[in-house]
């Protein structure tokens, strides 16, 4: 399965800030640059503005790891890699 992952996209982040009335929307997009209240607001709504659809992907990966493969109990290996080096691998692994 090839699932390109983009991480938090600036346009989606800015749009989410507007939609959820978060006035403080730093260009860094880092939670450490925001109040806890604003982080919580955006985190609660994250599945609605997450361009990578991580929640669904994690569920699919989990089912593939837990299910059998055509009746065979085989070991499974999942390889994921971020060529950018900008936290996308950790985003999926978490």
Question: Could you explain the architecture of this structure?
Answer:
By secondary structure, this protein is mostly helical. It contains four helices and no strands. The protein is elongated and about 55 Å long. The model has no long low-confidence stretch (mean pLDDT 79).
Helical content stands at 40-55%
Largest sheet: none
Q: Structural class given helices, strands, pairing? A: mainly alpha
Please, what is the average pLDDT?
Answer: 79
Percent of residues in beta strands? Answer: under 5%
Q: Short summary of the structure?
A:
The protein is mainly α.
Write the layout of secondary structure elements.
Layout lengths: L9 H10 L16 H14 L4 H13 L21 H6 L1
Please supply descriptive tags for the structure shown above.
94 residues; 46% helix
